[in-house]
Amino acid sequence: MKRTLQLLFIVSCINQLLLSQNIFTMDCDQTGMSVNVGSQEHMVSLYHGGPVYTMPFESNTVVWEITDMQGNLITKDTIVDDPHFTFYHHIAITDTINVSAHFTNHAAIHEGFPINCLIEDQLSWVITEDIAPSSLFPLGVYTKRWTFVHESLGVDQNVELSVDESKFNKKRSLVKIVDVLGKETLLRTNTVLFYIYDDGSVQKKYISR
Description:
CATH architecture: Sandwich
Mean pLDDT: 79
Number of strands: 13
CATH topology: Immunoglobulin-like
Low-confidence stretches: 4-11, 13-20, 160-170
CATH class: Mainly Beta
Number of helices: 2
């Protein structure tokens, strides 16, 4: 019993030491972005996972840059110690919005380098009807929302990428797109398509352009 109490005391001291240093990090490719619930056609609220799991919090900085399809700047802002970012725009919802989020923390050292992660992705206004993963029958649930096209993950800017590495890191891979007749097709707008993924899930989408 005494030995157990001594061990618990040692573990507690180690935890307190780590907390006092306030340094916690994670790999860049474990961070991503999502669109917050409540986002609307011309108001988009984004969330970045990096600042939530990286300490010290007060050194977390995300430089957000939002541009349109032609590369024109919509807005740019630097957010400190906050994973959320909200912006307003006046572009048509049929356009794609480019999002760049550069997350840094000079005080959080990960594998010998300060945190330096970049995520680049695109937002698209999508009307989606979810369907069961095991069938093509719709569930009758429609959503209209901004969604990230590539579901990109963070890329460590301290590491030089090889030419064979993909620009976008995806959480799941698209196997194929089929039309209402089940025939494989390419991405088309203003028509109903079924997106089939490698995890067995299927989504029915109508993308307006």
